[in-house]
Automatic annotation (TrEMBL):
Keywords: Cell membrane, Membrane, Transmembrane, Transmembrane helix, Transport. The chain crosses the membrane at residues 18-38, 44-67, 87-109, 121-141, 161-183. Residues 22-214 form the Cation efflux protein transmembrane domain. One of its GO terms (molecular function) is ferrous iron transmembrane transporter activity. This is Protein p34.
Length: 307
């Protein structure tokens, strides 16, 4: 059996580090603004919102560390690279989102037991609104760049920040209703409702990240593109079978068996493999392809791509 492997070059990840480092600065800025809003009003919802910003800071630091680790080249102990380090950061972010929700539940419960009269609620709404706008813009940019660059750490950080945006919007609505109605109980009620939503989003992010750590296959759309590239460039071979994929950060690992006529020379089979690899590389960036060449008596009857 002849095996051919190829790894296409990865784009520079300096931009990943820059975005992760900027997230730390944004988290510090937003945390300060939100805490100022809490001091102005005494609102438990604003306090909980500021409390979550501490988690944002921790996750931003975790994302930066994970990205730096994932950039390290393969070594003897990690021959496939360190790409999965980003998923650990995403799992941590999901867990910390859940912690933030539980902290908010606690503060809301205390406010239920001892309702508080808010000071300067309109000023607090305006100050918190500035922080929310900053977070919304940065979260959107992180999610878009994380998806485009296949960076789970950046995307996870963006989703985490977006839960903070949802929290802040809920808090602002709650404070507005308190001002309009005078019902102080709405403050902890709104904080509780938002905490439930945050809890769900944290659970969802954690489950998705754990799935990737378990070598989740590439999407059906990507697998279909791989098969199309094999069909279009496999002239001379008979079939491809046992096509397997897995993703690790921005890299997609692809492996399959290529059946060729038994009398075909090694050089001819190698040329076919090179042609298929080049086609997959043009179709999908950041790929690592391994092709196992087999004689025609190894052909499969089920699940094969006939050439």
């Amino acid at each position: 059996m002849h095996t051919v492997s190829h790894s296409s070059p990865r784009p520079s990840q300096r931009r990943h580090q820059l975005f992760a480092a900027t997230s730390i600065a944004v988290a510090l800025l937003v945390m300060g603004i939100k805490y100022a809003a809490y001091l102005m009003t005494g609102s438990v919802a604003l306090f909980s919102d500021a409390l979550e910003s501490i988690v944002n800071l921790v996750t931003a630091v975790a994302a930066l560390i994970a990205i730096r680790i994932s950039m390290q080249p393969p070594d003897r102990g990690h021959p496939f690279g360190h790409h999965k380090a980003e998923y650990f950061a995403a799992v941590l972010e999901g867990a910390l989102i859940i912690v933030a929700a539980l902290l908010i539940f606690h503060e809301a419960y205390q406010a239920f037991l001892s309702p508080r009269t808010l000071d300067q609620p309109m000023a607090g709404i305006l100050v918190s609104g500035v922080a929310t706008a900053i977070n919304a813009a940065w979260a959107t940019l992180l999610i878009r760049r994380g998806r485009a660059w296949k960076s789970p750490a950046l995307e996870g950080d963006g989703h985490h920040l977006f839960t903070d945006v949802i929290t802040s919007v809920g808090v602002l609505i709650g404070l507005g209703l308190v001002v309009l109605t005078g019902w102080s109980i709405l403050d902890p009620l709104m904080a509780t409702a938002v905490a439930i939503n945050i809890l769900y989003m944290g659970y969802k992010l954690t489950v998705q990240s754990m799935s990737q750590l378990m070598d989740h296959a590439a999407s059906p759309e990507i697998e279909a593109r791989i098969k199309d590239a094999i069909r279009a460039n496999g002239d001379g071979a008979l079939q491809a079978h046992d096509i397997r994929t897995r993703t690790a950060g921005p890299l997609t690992f692809i492996e399959f068996h290529l059946v060729v006529p038994g009398e075909m020379s090694v050089q001819a089979a190698h040329d076919i493999c090179d042609r298929i690899e080049d086609a997959i590389e043009k179709e999908l960036i950041n790929t690592d392809v391994i092709i196992h060449v087999e004689p025609d008596d190894k052909a499969e009857h089920k699940g094969a791509v006939d050439l």
